[in-house]
Amino acid sequence: MSLLSRGFDMAGWGFRWVLVLVLLALWRPGTACPELCTCTGVRISCVDAERSIMAFPMLQSEAEMENITDIYIANQSSFTSINEKDLNLYRNLRNLTVTNTRLTYISRQAFQSNLKLQYLNLKENNLSYLSWRTFHHLNLSSLLLAGNTLQCSCENVWLKQWRGEESEELMCVEEGGKRRALAMLTLPNCVLPTVTLKPTKVTMREGVNVTLVCNTSGTPTPNLNWDTCKLNSAHQKEGSGQMSELKLYNVSSLDNGCKITCRSDNMVGESEASVHLDILCPPVISKLMDAISDHHWCIPFSVAGNPEPKLSWLLNDQPVEEGNFIHTVIHDYSEGEYHGCLQLDSPTHINNGEYTLMASNAYGEDIKAVSAHFMYEPWNESVTDPLYYDPTTDDTPLGPPEDKVAVYVVVGIAAITFTGFILMLVILKFGRNSKFGIKGFVLFHNVPVEVVAR
Ligand SMILES: *[C@@H]1O[C@H](CO)[C@@H](O)[C@H](O)[C@H]1NC(C)=O
Ligand SMILES: *[C@@H]1O[C@H](CO)[C@@H](O)[C@H](O)[C@H]1NC(C)=O
Ligand SMILES: *[C@@H]1O[C@H](CO)[C@@H](O)[C@H](O)[C@H]1NC(C)=O
Ligand SMILES: *[C@@H]1O[C@H](CO)[C@@H](O)[C@H](O)[C@H]1NC(C)=O
Ligand SMILES: *[C@@H]1O[C@H](CO)[C@@H](O)[C@H](O)[C@H]1NC(C)=O
Ligand SMILES: *[C@@H]1O[C@H](CO)[C@@H](O)[C@H](O)[C@H]1NC(C)=O
Ligand SMILES: *[C@@H]1O[C@H](CO)[C@@H](O)[C@H](O)[C@H]1NC(C)=O
Ligand SMILES: *[C@@H]1O[C@H](CO)[C@@H](O)[C@H](O)[C@H]1NC(C)=O
Ligand SMILES: *[C@@H]1O[C@H](CO)[C@@H](O)[C@H](O)[C@H]1NC(C)=O
Fold first, then answer.
1. Which of 2, 32, 165, 234 could be a cystine partner for 249, CB 3.0 to 4.6 Å?
2. pTM of the full structure
3. For residue range 319-331, what is the model confidence (pLDDT) as tens digits?
């Protein structure tokens, strides 16, 4: 074969490939819908009984899959499983129907990403076992399972609680092949776990040690797990089988309010018990700052302490009477501290001075002071000196502030206006009694005279 004809041959192949691609493109015109299904915006439907899909349909882009709320699969003889990742990208799925297929297996992670799933119809399939773990993170309104070959085994006993949700009576198949109502099923060695967590109330001083004990019963033997907030206190978990201990050493007041949960599960289901730590400690004022001006003036503070400390204030060693114009406000409670303000409405020079915050509860007290300067005495001559209180800096003297410049400008304008007014009066006076009245002024002047004449 000559080089030339080989070239032609290659071109021929190239052409044929292009043709195949064009045909393929025409075959599935523009849409990203899988061949054996139909897609309408939010819905995918695969019902062609002649040619069955083998697995979940996938669309071309993630964005398209996110738009899907409804998947309907029926009469597919080769469809057998829903695997871990199959529905990963259908994050907005609400309705899923898989019916009249050979569906045998559903992964425990199958619906991990489908938090919006509400309606799940799995009727007329070949499901033998289903785990509650597959569904326990979902908020299903319907789970339809009639027409499967569910076994009368402990693994399916959790389904008894779904009975109320369905009008149909779920049936299960016993070993001999006999069918019976799942609702009536009672099996030996098949008991939902129970948990007890002791003590049921944990109230103690900071710095002590405490041991929480979690006991469980249930068959098959349940797993025990602790689920805690991020603990600041040193801690240790010990135990085996039906009992577990959580030991906390030198408990930190930072763990006040922390929720500690002990969770127990087996194939029948899950139970849990919780306790909130209540760690008593004396008040600590962690922050007391210079007054800042917002809508009101505010002397900000942060105080820790459990029980909630009682707060009171001194101004220059005299108790502050709280009322409409001065009062303590707690804005929020976070990370074990109360954050708030001593709020002052339009404070004047009489509010200037040293503010002392006193926080106390049954376990002790804390005291801190800050000096606040709201305004100069109006008669004080040294107002003109450049010392000026600026709350954003640390009480440092500044040059003449813009406020004062503004005052000078206003006073200046008033003075000029007043001078002008006097000048005008003088001119009008001249205009009335003499002949060098300017026309405009005379006219202007004549109007009031006429009014007076009437
Ligand atoms: C998803 O749906 C929105 C609104 O219905 C639409 O504007 C958008 O084009 C759709 N995205 C895809 C990839 O189909
Ligand atoms: C599935 O097949 C059954 C019987 O073969 C038929 O009655 C039903 O309409 C089919 N379902 C769909 C959605 O095509
Ligand atoms: C989901 O299915 C239910 C029951 O068939 C139906 O009433 C509802 O309209 C469906 N929702 C969506 C979003 O398709
Ligand atoms: C149903 O599943 C069982 C295994 O669980 C399998 O042996 C059987 O062949 C399946 N039946 C059909 C019709 O696929
Ligand atoms: C669960 O669904 C019901 C309605 O089906 C709804 O009222 C409820 O708010 C949902 N709960 C959560 C946590 O989404
Ligand atoms: C707390 O436990 C530690 C370590 O076991 C021990 O050294 C300490 O004395 C205990 N403290 C109290 C108050 O019991
Ligand atoms: C927990 O169980 C163990 C043995 O299983 C028992 O010794 C212990 O007293 C139980 N504790 C509580 C708090 O029930
Ligand atoms: C307990 O914790 C505090 C601070 O959380 C620490 O200062 C103290 O040394 C600790 N005591 C012991 C015995 O570890
Ligand atoms: C006037 O204000 C200055 C600056 O704060 C202060 O040092 C001085 O004591 C005040 N004078 C009087 C009479 O209050």
1. 234
2. 0.68
3. 999 999 999 999 9
